[in-house]
Amino acid sequence: MDIAVLDRHTLTCREDVDFSPLEKLGRVRYLRVECEEDIINGAKGCKAVLCNKILITRRVLEALPEVKYVGVFATGYNNVDLAAAHALGVTVTNVPGYSGAAVAQHVIALLLHFYSKVGEYDRAVRAGEWAAQKCFSYFPYPMYEVAGKTLGVFGFGDIGKKVARAASALGMQVLVHTRTQPQNCPYELADKESLFSRSDVVTLHCPLTEQTARLINSDTLALMKKSAVLINTARGGLVDEDALYRALTEKKIAAAALDVLETEPPKDSRLIGLENCVVTPHVAWAPAETRNRLVRMAADNIAAFAEGKPVNTV
Question: Which of 46, 124, 133, 173 has the fewest CB atoms within 10 Å of its CB?
Fold first, then answer.
């Protein structure tokens, strides 16, 4: 089987990912893609195409009739024209559940960044502020215990469950809002309004859909405590960034920590640089172990397809 990999660079920048699980399945072409023509010309004769964020449009699929399989190096698959793929008999798969531990870890890191002020104190020590003191301890930046605080988890899939368990282990009270009734949920279930109004920290773990687009807006932000923190490691489109900017600058909420933005990479986001807003560059999913797991699972998807028993189809 000939396999075209369209955006290998999104998975590794230090050659720290093992692609041999894919290479054992057939002849792999690693393409450099800047436009649709690069896909069409480079993937000719390939039966399978793998991509991360590059768009797979109807035009691409129609121009490549040999392609019978599109695998996405991600859980989200909104970059593939599913209607066209299904109409043309192309199987599409994703990779669910590969990054839950990594994203949950990043959520807790962002939470502790706000409550423990590790970054501020590291900068202060490097700047000589501690050395200049007469007292043994130096704590000008206010810190708070997370134990006893309430964490609102919006979305209760694999990542939401892992975040809830980690927060519970830290002594936090957990509220959960989810569109489907979970079985044997050990945490209090709350409606949307209650979750936003009662939580000290709200963390988003739902997919981006027509129903959840701009979930964070002037109305939901107005429900939150002035001391509350918003964390988003899901999708940038869940947040109305103008509304969040106003809430942060007007101190209507205390802080935000974002790993995703509406436009990535950002061009002129006003959120970047705000004192009470931390932004990381869509890296919650990116530990080396996680990316290697992603490639192995993508290879397993192709192997199952080759055997006529496709899994993780969308």
Answer: 133
Active site residues: 235, 264, 282
In a domain, 94, yes or no: yes
199: Cβ contacts below 8 Å, ≥ 6 apart: 150, 151, 152, 175, 224, 225, 228
Structure tokens at 174: 């957990």
What is the pLDDT confidence band of residue 14, given thresholds at 50, 70 and 90? Answer: confident
Residue 110 in domain: yes
Under 8 Å between Cβ of 75 and 98: yes
Asked if the structure places residue 16 within a domain, the reply is yes
Is residue 10 within 8 Å of 31, Cβ to Cβ? Answer: no
User: What one-character-per-residue DSSP string does 72-105 give?
Assistant: ESSS--TTB-HHHHHHTT-EEE--TTSSHHHHHH
Burial of 253 (0-12, 13-18, 19+ CB in 10 A): buried
- Judge contact between 163 and 112, C-beta under 8 A: no
What amino acid is encoded at 22 in this protein? Answer: L
Q: Number of structural domains, the chain?
A: 2
Statement to judge: residues 89 and 45 lie in one domain: yes
What is the model's pTM? Answer: 0.92
Q: Could you give the CA distance from residue 188 to residue 210 in angstroms, rounded to a whole number?
A: 26
pLDDT per position as a tens digit, 82-114: 999 999 999 999 999 999 999 999 999 999 999
User: What's the token pair of residue 221?
Assistant: 């932000």
The 10s digit of each residue's pLDDT in 220-242 is: 999 999 999 999 999 999 999 99
